[in-house]
Structures are given as C-alpha cells and as structure tokens.
TrEMBL record:
<dbReference type="InterPro" id="IPR051166">
    <property type="entry name" value="Threonine_Synthase"/>
</dbReference>
<dbReference type="Pfam" id="PF24857">
    <property type="entry name" value="THR4_C"/>
</dbReference>
<keyword id="KW-0791">Threonine biosynthesis</keyword>
<feature type="domain" description="Tryptophan synthase beta chain-like PALP">
    <location>
        <begin position="89"/>
        <end position="331"/>
    </location>
</feature>
<dbReference type="InterPro" id="IPR029144">
    <property type="entry name" value="Thr_synth_N"/>
</dbReference>
<dbReference type="InterPro" id="IPR004450">
    <property type="entry name" value="Thr_synthase-like"/>
</dbReference>
<keyword id="KW-0663">Pyridoxal phosphate</keyword>
<dbReference type="Pfam" id="PF00291">
    <property type="entry name" value="PALP"/>
</dbReference>
<protein>
    <recommendedName>
        <fullName>Threonine synthase</fullName>
        <ecNumber>4.2.3.1</ecNumber>
    </recommendedName>
</protein>
<comment type="similarity">
    <text>Belongs to the threonine synthase family.</text>
</comment>
<dbReference type="GO" id="GO:0004795">
    <property type="term" value="F:threonine synthase activity"/>
</dbReference>
<feature type="domain" description="Threonine synthase N-terminal">
    <location>
        <begin position="2"/>
        <end position="80"/>
    </location>
</feature>
<dbReference type="InterPro" id="IPR036052">
    <property type="entry name" value="TrpB-like_PALP_sf"/>
</dbReference>
<keyword id="KW-0028">Amino-acid biosynthesis</keyword>
<keyword id="KW-0456">Lyase</keyword>
<comment type="pathway">
    <text>Amino-acid biosynthesis; L-threonine biosynthesis; L-threonine from L-aspartate: step 5/5.</text>
</comment>
<dbReference type="InterPro" id="IPR037158">
    <property type="entry name" value="Thr_synth_N_sf"/>
</dbReference>
C-alpha cells in the first residue's frame, strides 16, 4: 500500500514512511492510494472476535508489504493490555435507539489512547529498525497531549514535545501532561489557542531544514497511522449492532476531524454506515460550512468541552481531497484560498456531496449542561461534556431529518471519561465523578512545563534545545 499527499507534490511513501513523516513535505496530509474493501462475508466474520483480532484484520490491509506489518500483532497486544475493560471499547445502550461507545478505558481516559498506544509502539520499533532518533511533536486542546506523553514517555529514541494552550485545558488534563517526570517529555504552555499551537506545529514541519535536523514527526491526527487505528472501533461497534446486514449511524465529538474521518474511512472500506454526524460546541466552523458552503474558521471560543475548542480542523483537508475525487489541483486551490483569505468556498456540488453522508451541529453551553443532567437523571450515567455535545447533536440530527421512526441505531462516540471534567459534571448533576485508580496513579505532584509566547522562533529554539535528535546523540542499543 502506498500513501499519497493531499497536495500531490510530496513523494508517495510506504506506511512506515507516512508514519515517521507525520505531515507530508508539501504541507498536505497522507492518504492511502486506494481503499481496501471488506466484503459482507468478511465483515460478518468479525462478529464475536476480540478487539485485538478485529484490529489486526482491519489494519492489516493498510500495512501490506510494509516492514511494520511484522510488528502489528505484538504491538496490538501490548497496546491494549493496559485497558481496563475486556471489550476495550464497550458499547452501552442508553435509549431504544441510542448507544454509547465508551472509548475512554485506556491509560489517560480518552479515545486518543486507542490509537496513540499503537502509533508510539510502531514508531519506536520503526526507529529502532532504522537506528534513528525522532522528535515527536503534538498540539493538544486537552486529550491528545496526555495520551501522547503516556505512550511515548521513557522511549529511548524519541523526545516528545507537546504544546497546549495556556489556561485552556482542565486542571486534570494539564496535570496528566505536566506531572510526568521522564526526561524525554517536554511541555509547552503556549500563550494562545489550540489553533495557534497547531499552526506553529505545522510551521515547524514546513521548515524543511529544521524538520530534517530534528527528525520531526507528528502524532496529531494529521498522522495517517492515528486515523487507521481509530477505524477499528467503528467495525467492532457496527458488527455488534448487526452490520453488515443492518446499517449504523455515528455521532462524533469533533475538533480536528480525525475521529469522524476514521468513520468515513470505515465506510469506504465497506462498513454500512448511514450517517456521520459532526458534533461541535460553540466552535462551529463546520456546521457553518454546512449551512453556507463556506468554511471560515474564526477565533477559538473557550468552552466546557475544551478538547473541541478548535476552529481549524486539520483533517477537513482529507475530506476535501475525497470530495473533489482526489483532484490535487482543486485541493491546493481550496487550501490556498483558506490560507490567503481565511476561508474556503465549496461549489454547490461539493456541498451536496458532503451532506449526503455528513450532518453537522453546534451545541451551546446550556444545552451541554442540560444534556449531562438529563442523561444522569434518566440513566444514572455521568457523561463528560464532549459526549454530551454529541448526544445533543444526535438528537438534532434526528429532528432535522425527521427520523423519529428510523430503525438505524445511532452510536455516540463517548470520547472521554467524566472524571476528567469534574467541575462541569458536578455543576450539571451535583455529583463529582469518581477518579479511576489508573488516573490517580498517573497524576504526580510536581509540574514541569515551560510557558512560551505564540511565536514561531521562540518555540523552534526551545525544541532545538531539547531535541536529542538535533544534537546528534546516538541511541544506546
Ligand atoms: N482534540 C484534540 C486536539 C488534537 O486532535 P488530534 O486528534 O488531531 O490529535 C486534543 O484533545 O488534544
């Protein structure tokens, strides 16, 4: 399997190449050249399998003829050994037509662990094979950072540098990152928003001499390996609900568009997904694009669902690539328009095509609170604010499409444990969610973090100083 850039000007790479590159050298995102396809029989054959067995079958075709394939089984076994539920991603019914897919049973209590634990191990093994070092960069609005730090801490060949927007993540999210004392972990609290963090990370990648000197790679969902590992739980949940014979819809809390794009990938692979619903908070650049055809990210608004406090969703570029039938000229035109004017304009045909599969909604702070309270009253379940935004969006989708009588199950991706957002959950329900032991075990006392202005050169200097790859240090065998 080969991987091509959405902008068509970077060399195509193997899976291992795309894994280690993160962002393509032309600023684009890597995509597989073709979609592997699963027959109805192959999908039906996933029923009753363990999560790891499904993961192996779903991911394998993306690694065909790649050195990473030999590592896959062992990596999956190690990655999911630390999850606290035997099903890895248990599915719970909350109303006759709504299911919650719990994606927070990993070490940092958020869905990011499902891919990050796999990506870190694949990367580590690839670097050991090649005898090299890497500097892993990540921008986080709350959850990616903790997951990346947990997955990469203590790895010999890798330094990890995470940028979070100062004062805009919850205390638990921050401490999950900053109390890790491994010397290969570096935290930057950036004086800005998540979009500023992500813009600096992308600028670092686009600075090719620096990128090569520091052996930069990325672990945000711009890295294709993150997406592919996230397609697995669409398969496990859809099959549990009757796929391939019964279609399933999904509602996904959306920030950087990676998780919902993984659902699109599963659909392209043959999984009968009927609708993919984009759930956002007040950062509503995607619902506005659906309403107007114009994607125009504005200033990030701080909300009680901080992981989605994002306006510029990186993976929207992957969707545009698909929407324009992989016409790289058109992608470049759209991305140049976005960069030069701050907005991107879809044609009526492109917008219609988008709406055939996707719906998009924005949920206010009040609705989020009410949803957390209502779900608790009716089911006794404490939901985190991101999941609550998704539940609100799923109900809006049902109303918008007048689907009161649909028999298609709607699965809500529950992306984080309520324990990461105790203040918000307590405000809505009067109850403080209990902290799981694995969270308590990981929160240290002393915080280590450097505050920096949102200035490219200052951040580049900090990373150069802390990257062992940049100092030419050898890896001990
Ligand atoms: N929501 C994320 C932001 C980055 O998303 P990613 O999936 O591209 O890593 C977070 O919580 O950090």
């Amino acid at each position: 399997m080969k991987y091509v850039s959405t902008r068509g000007e970077a060399p195509s790479l193997s899976f291992e190449g795309a894994l280690l590159a993160g962002l393509a050298r032309d600023g684009g995102l890597y995509m597989p050249e073709t979609w592997p396809h699963f027959s109805e029989k192959e999908i039906a054959g996933l029923a009753g399998l363990d999560y790891i067995d499904v993961a192996e079958r779903v991911i394998r075709p993306f690694l065909e003829d790649d050195p990473c394939l030999d590592d896959l089984r062992e990596v999956l076994e190690e990655a999911y050994a630390g999850f606290d539920h035997p099903a890895v991603t248990p599915l719970k019914q909350i109303t006759p037509k709504l299911w919650i897919l719990e994606l927070f049973h990993g070490p940092t209590l958020a869905f990011k662990d499902l891919a990050m634990q796999v990506v870190a191990r694949l990367m580590d093994r690839a670097l050991i094979r090649k005898g090299g070092r890497a500097t892993v960069l990540g921008a986080t609005s709350g959850d990616t950072g903790a997951a990346a730090i947990d997955a990469f801490r203590g790895r010999k060949a890798i330094d990890v540098v995470i940028l979070h927007p100062k004062g805009r993540v919850t205390e638990i999210q921050r401490r999950q990152m900053t109390t890790v004392d491994d010397p290969n972990v570096h935290n930057i609290a950036l004086e800005g928003t998540f979009d500023d963090c992500q813009a600096i990370v992308k600028a670092l990648f686009n600075d090719l001499p620096l990128r090569d000197r520091l052996h930069l790679t990325g672990v945000n969902s711009i890295n294709w390996a993150r997406i592919v590992a996230q397609t697995v739980y669409y398969f496990t949940s859809a099959v549990a609900l009757g796929a391939p014979w019964r279609p399933v819809s999904y509602t996904v809390p959306t920030g950087n568009f990676g998780d919902i794009f993984a659902g699109y990938v599963a659909q392209q692979m043959g999984l009968p997904i009927q609708r993919l619903v984009i759930a956002t908070n007040a950062n509503d650049s995607l619902p506005r694009a659906f309403a107007t055809g114009i994607y125009e990210p504005k200033t990030v608004i701080a909300t009680s669902s901080p992981s989605m406090d994002i306006q510029l969703a990186s993976n929207f570029e992957r969707l545009m690539f698909e929407l324009v039938d992989r016409n790289v000229g058109r992608v470049k035109e759209l991305m140049t328009e976005l960069q030069d004017t701050g907005k991107l304009t879809m044609t009526p045909d492109e917008l219609t095509k988008l709406k055939e599969v996707f719906g998009a909604y924005s949920i206010s702070e009040e609705e989020t609170q009410e949803t957390i309270a209502r779900v608790y009253r009716k089911t006794g379940v404490l939901t985190d604010p991101h999941t609550a935004v998704a539940i609100g969006s799923a109900l809006d989708e049902r109303r918008a499409l007048d689907q009161g009588n649909t028999t298609t199950p709607m699965v809500i991706l529950s992306t984080a444990d309520a324990a990461k957002f105790p203040e918000t959950v307590e405000r809505a329900t009067g109850r403080v969610p209990e902290q799981p032991q694995r969270l308590k075990d990981r929160l240290g006392e002393t915080e280590r973090c450097t505050s920096l202005p949102a200035d490219y050169q200052t951040v580049a200097d900090f990373i150069s100083k802390h990257s062992r790859a940049g100092q030419g240090e050898e890896v001990d065998a």
